[in-house]
Design brief:
By secondary structure, this protein is α/β, with parallel strands linked by helices. Helix content is 33%, strand content 19%. The protein has helices spanning 16-25, 48-55, 75-81, 96-105, 151-164, 182-188, 197-200, 205-215; strands at 3-6, 31-36, 62-67, 85-89, 109-114, 132-136, 170-174, 192-195.
Length: 216
């Protein structure tokens, strides 16, 4: 089943409880939380305290995306705080296998993200150990960027590899996803669609999410 994952930190940060309530009413599948450290990406968001706060307000699974350098330093903290899915960047750590094994050991679902300039082939050896690959369709760091359309070819290639190897690994796509392009992303083979400004920039979240569901 294909899933919509609104990127919550694109919402009203002074009124997160209400934003979560609206997402619950829209019956979203996941809440995506971007964690940025100002080192791996040129922006800073929040730490595990925000994950813990959101977890205390909802039973919607939390999809936590660590855009941070050496994520192995904080795996335990984010899972303890409530991350159900924890995704780390292939480019952010030297020992990717060790990191995803630790995530699994702590009973969270491990994912690996790749930036627009990182080929899909680079993660071939880790696919058997993870539940999800996150393909960044913008350069990470800021919301509201335009979708990089060459990402569609990466999604298609990854879908072929997963199918040929008979894996159940899901493909998540994050960056510039809106109503106008979500069908293309879906048709390329994506399973999970992260949208920040595409949802929170709309007047009616529920109508926007329903339209996205119709198109995928």
């Amino acid at each position: 089943m294909k899933k919509i994952a609104p990127s919550i930190l694109s919402g009203d940060l002074l009124n997160l409880s209400n934003e979560i309530k609206l997402l619950k009413e829209a019956d979203v599948d996941l809440i995506h939380i971007d964690i940025m450290d100002g080192i791996f990406v040129p922006n800073i968001t929040a730490g595990w305290n925000i994950v813990e706060a959101i977890k205390s307000r909802t039973d919607i699974p939390l999809d936590v995306h660590l855009m941070i350098d050496r994520p192995e330093r904080y795996i335990d903290d984010f899972i303890k705080s409530g991350a159900d899915i924890l995704t780390v960047h292939f480019e952010g750590t030297t020992h990717i296998h060790r990191v995803v094994e630790r995530i699994r050991e702590l009973e969270a679902s491990p994912g690996v993200a790749i930036n627009p300039g990182t080929p899909v082939d680079f993660i071939s050896e880790i696919l058997n150990y993870i539940d999800m690959v996150l393909i960044m369709s913008v350069n990470p760091g800021f919301s509201g960027q335009e979708f990089i359309y060459s990402s569609l070819f990466k999604i298609e290639k990854l879908r072929r590899i997963i199918s040929q190897r008979e894996l159940e690994t899901q493909i998540e796509v994050d960056g510039g996803i809106k109503i106008i392009n979500i069908a293309d992303v879906s048709n390329s083979g994506a399973d999970i669609f992260v949208s920040g400004s595409g949802i929170f920039g709309a007047d009616d979240y529920l109508a926007t999410i329903n339209e996205m569901r119709d198109r995928i």
